[in-house]
Amino acid sequence: MKDSAMYIPTYEDMLAAHERIAPHIRRTPIRTSAYLNELTGAELFFKCENFQEPGAFKVRGASNAVFGLDAAQAAKGVATHSSGNHASCLSYAAMLRGIPCNVVMPRTAPQAKKDTVRRYGGKITECEPSTSSREETFARVQAETGGDFVHPYNDPRVIAGQGTCAKEFVEQTDGLDLVLAPIGGGGMISGTCLTLSTLAPETRIIAAEPEQADDAYRSFKAGYIIADDAPKTIADGLLVPLKDLTWHFVANHVSDILTASDPEIIDAMKLIWKHLRVVMEPSSAVPLATILKNPETFRGKRVGIVLTGGNVDLDRLPWTL
Amino acid sequence: MKDSAMYIPTYEDMLAAHERIAPHIRRTPIRTSAYLNELTGAELFFKCENFQEPGAFKVRGASNAVFGLDAAQAAKGVATHSSGNHASCLSYAAMLRGIPCNVVMPRTAPQAKKDTVRRYGGKITECEPSTSSREETFARVQAETGGDFVHPYNDPRVIAGQGTCAKEFVEQTDGLDLVLAPIGGGGMISGTCLTLSTLAPETRIIAAEPEQADDAYRSFKAGYIIADDAPKTIADGLLVPLKDLTWHFVANHVSDILTASDPEIIDAMKLIWKHLRVVMEPSSAVPLATILKNPETFRGKRVGIVLTGGNVDLDRLPWTL
Asked: Which end of chain A has fewer CB atoms < 10 Å from its terminal CB, N or C?
């Protein structure tokens, strides 16, 4: 097992990941909209990772970790702490391989998230909604089960897996001037950097972040990791801070980080629902929000946007709240 | 110009239509969901006609009519009466060819529908919301403009165009046991019959209809066209009655018509939004609603479902009303 705190995944790791996970993920389609092209003056390509069976790109990294385990470790399964898409995607991948998946989740997490993890066979251990309780609980679960810890993003296997999305994106579009993805912990952005810095070094990579959780933006400007305590934004997939591995990729390969306000994110989300006719979550709308806010940066360009996830509470859509 | 009241379109007309419209429409993708397969016990293939640029399969028939006009008629353009997807799709096709499109629409039609037609360059003439006013107004508009009347469904060019969807569906799935589509006036179902009766005669065709607008169901059982006065259902794309051409196909090639209640349609719509993560309108949910209601008919079968359209008011979703 490689040490996830030290090892920086390579382009070859990404290629191996793609071969490993191809039978278990979808090669998601690209959607375009003449209307949104006209509105932005750019040629926009949306990669629909919300169309993965469990609804998010995180199935790529999770599958790479799960299907890369040797038989002895696989028997003990995997473990993680997450209340979001990583928990359900890791459970889904573990279900496909038929191995245990233990998830530590705050007891306050939405019932729908718990239901999804359980539907995929994940076993939930609840903790209090605090960092200390989560860490204590997770240490206990891991000691009891021997499950391999798969971090939501700060893990080379996960980053190599997320990088497979950018490889498909290049193959499906014959090249892009820019690629935008939302940034939270930085897993998707890091995978994108990993792949494009070798495969398409001329393509600029821009991270898009909510103004109300702009720790990556401030880290990028400062030159070191800044982590916020408890940011609040409608883009609830993007609340976590950068870690050493993802900071490596952000610091070395990201061209810029742009931010958008929550109302701008909601407007962009509604535009995508209306004109692309896909269901995606607020976090995935941040890139379009930043394009609409900075039109001169994108006009006339071929722009790829990763629609990262599609798990949203249909009874509580942001524009109806 | 062929007489739309008499001429029954052929398989060759459909093939010619596909060649004519291919540059102007999308070859829409198929979506699947392991979860919905498990729920129904069937293998479901959803053809995403909601992903057409103007958001509905009707761009196929409209494009076939518009791009089939000779130069003299094209100069005078096209005309129709519709307050739904046909109006916007005909305007869109006319815009692509650069010819006039006149649409007669009740003044009470939703503002969003009028806005879409105008965005595509369609010229709206408003009438009172009555059949007599619509007919009078349309006759005047047609006399003034000389625009070629493109009926929303009772037109052989339109039916041949809609039939191109089933051709792609067969090509993309390697064959299906059953195909389901919603039925209103019967344009999509007729096109499906036209194509499959030659290309895949072993595939059964089932029409799905709202209980609250079940005139096609009653016509099918009675053996002649029954038209209702003003049916009311959440599936507002399916309010119109069969006409002679579509009745021909329904009577000769449809295996069965199944119905579902409005609450069942809304439940099915929400399932599709949640698990396929596509935005589609209530009318397009009727097939899945009938499958969930008649599981024994579909269990173990390969079932194609046409998601006919994706134009829905995001501020007034049926489960939030």
From this structure: C
Amino acid, single-letter form, for residue B212: Q
Residue contact A34–B50, C-beta within 8 A:
no
Give the gap in angstroms from C-alpha B33 to the nearest C-alpha of chain A.
7
Question: Which domains does chain A show, CATH number per domain?
Answer: 11-57+159-320 (3.40.50.1100), 59-149 (3.40.50.1100)
- Residues of A with Cβ-Cβ distance to B315 under 8 angstroms: 319-320
Burial, B12: exposed, middle or buried (Cβ in 10 Å; 0-12, 13-18, 19+)? Answer: exposed
pLDDT in tens, B162-196: 999 999 999 999 899 999 999 999 999 999 999 99
Dist CA A154 CA B215 (whole Å) = 59
* CA distance linking residue B89 with residue B117, whole number of Å: 8
Residues of A in contact with B53 (CB under 8 A): 33-35
Structure-token pair, residue B127: 């009438």
ipTM of this predicted structure = 0.94
B270 has a chain A CB within 8 A of its CB? yes
Confirm or reject contact between B120 and chain A (CB < 8 A): no
Q: How far A274 CA sits from the closest chain B CA (Å)?
A: 8
